[in-house]
Structures are given as structure tokens and as C-alpha cells.
Amino acid sequence: MPFVLDEFLPYRLSVAATEVSRRFAARYAAEAGLSIPEWRVLAHLGHSGAASVRDITAKVSLEKSIVSRAASRLEDRGILRKSAHDGDRRLIVLELTEDGTALMARLAELAEAFQAELRHQLGADAHRFEAALKRLAG
Amino acid sequence: MPFVLDEFLPYRLSVAATEVSRRFAARYAAEAGLSIPEWRVLAHLGHSGAASVRDITAKVSLEKSIVSRAASRLEDRGILRKSAHDGDRRLIVLELTEDGTALMARLAELAEAFQAELRHQLGADAHRFEAALKRLAG
DNA sequence: ACATCATCGTTGCATCCGCAACGACATTGA
DNA sequence: TCAATGTCGTTGCGGATGCAACGATGATGT
């Protein structure tokens, strides 16, 4: 029996992830031209409030160098600000500006709507599907 | 209700895909230091026999420039050869060498074994999970 | 036949990613 | 106290990616 790439689970997973990310990026491109790392940093800060680069690195599956550069770009655009941490001056505190909070509020709506579409596309299996994803990543 | 990145389906999908690809790459790294595009080109040629860059581009979800460069690297390593197409000289025919075929045979075993592990990890939902992936990519 | 337009594969270029330094600071242990 | 070690965020650098040319070749329409 020959090996068929098209039936290979890691391949299918990668293709699906790329396609879904591409579709979502097309949605928020009009609202804000964010890269995926920038989107993840923004979304995490919107939920967590102030956080250090290290905190974000640990939570959103990105290298610290990528988080660092994404944060600098978001700072340049006025979406977040950096400040010193009291007590540990190695740390840098990142938090959203008002503009950043407003942007996140708009993107959260887009994201929820998009996710609703995906779940509709998945039908009744959606919940099991998401549980399976967590099992694979763990 | 606040937006939580960790529950966002495109994020979970991306994390799972990255993690699974990383695990699989670790398996075949010992056998052959292939990039993901190289692996896909090799796998497709193993299944399809001779094919043009364009054929592969259409089948394995990669840009034509990436397929072109991956093919050149595989050629340098003696895994595939390029030849002219009779009748349409724009096309380049790619096919595996004997070494390439032998390499693919070894990697196919690794791949099947790895996939079996993943399906075991997914349990009874494995089949529905793969069907859902196809639905998302389509 | 010939001009026009489409297609194929390659390459240049700007950008992004991943890893390994690095400087600054904190913690540890004697 | 102070040297050794660990941690934080940034940056340099090599390599990969994505897009837009480009030259070469085919197809089309008159």
C-alpha cells in the first residue's frame, strides 16, 4: 500500500490550519494589518491586562524574539505601551493603550463571528473536534 | 464575555498543527534532514511518479517558488532528477531517483507509524476528526 | 504567418522566522 | 559582600517564505 500524502494527518492538519488562518487574516486585514504574532500579543493583552514578554511567550506559543518584535511594532502603532516593572527591572510591562483596547474590542467581535462560522461548518462534531485539538497539542 | 485566545479555534488549530509537525520532523530528522516542502515534494513524487512543478504545486499546497527551490535541493542531494517534457518544453518533469525511492520507502514507514500513534492518541474520534479537517480545508 | 496573450519554472528582493549570542539585572551561596 | 549563576528582553545573522517580475515557450485569433 503506497503512502498518500493527502491522507496524512500532519499534512491535513497543516493545510487546514493554514487555510483557516488565511481566511481569518482576510477578515481583519481591513480592520488592522496585523501579523499573526501581533494578533496573538494583542489578544492576550486584551484578556490578561498587563503582562511581560515572558508571560506572553509562555501563553501564546511564540518565541520570545517574535513576541519582542511584535510588541515593538504594536508600540510603534500606538496599540500598546511599555513600562518598567517595579521590583524587577529585567521585566517590561506591556499593556494596551486606549486605541489598542478599542481595536481589540472590534477584532474580538470579528473573531467570535468567524469562530461561529467555523463551528457551524463543523456541525455537531465541533465540540469533539476542539477537544481533539487540545489532546494533540498537549 | 471577554475574548480568550486559548479557546479560539484558529489558534488551537495552528498550535496543534505546529506541534504535530514538529514531532514528526523530529522523527525523520535522523533519517534525512528534510524541510517540510522537501518532504511534501518527495512524498508526492513517490505516489504520483513523474510530475511537473505545476502538478506538485496544485497538489501539496505550496507556492510554485517553494516547490521549485525544494526540487532543486532534492536534485542536488540526488533524490530526484529533472528532465525535459516531450511536447511542451515549458514543463519540467520531476521524478525520484533510485535513492529517492528508497528514501521514500523508509520515510513512508516512519510516517505510517507516526500516524498510527496520532490516531491512537485521538482514540475513537480519529475518523471524525480527519473528516472535519477536510471540511475546514475545503 | 504573426501579433497578442497565457502559462511554466526560476530568480530577486523584502520580510519573517529561529536560534544563539549579548547586556542588564536578579538570585544564590559561601 | 561579592563572585558565580540564572533570567529577561533585544538584536544579529543565516535561512526560509511570499510576491512580483522575468525569459522562454505555447496557444489563440485573425
TrEMBL record, chains A, B:
Annotated GO MF terms: DNA binding; DNA-binding transcription factor activity
Record keywords: DNA-binding, Transcription, Transcription regulation
Domain HTH marR-type residue range list: 6-138
Pfam families, alphabetized: MarR (PF01047)
PROSITE patterns referenced in this protein's UniProt entry, alphabetically: HTH_MARR_2
UniProt keyword Transcription regulation, yes or no: yes
Gene3D superfamilies: Winged helix-like DNA-binding domain superfamily/Winged helix DNA-binding domain
Cross-referenced PANTHER family: HTH-TYPE TRANSCRIPTIONAL REGULATOR PCHR
Protein known as: DNA-binding transcriptional regulator, MarR family
UniProt organism field: Paracoccus tibetensis
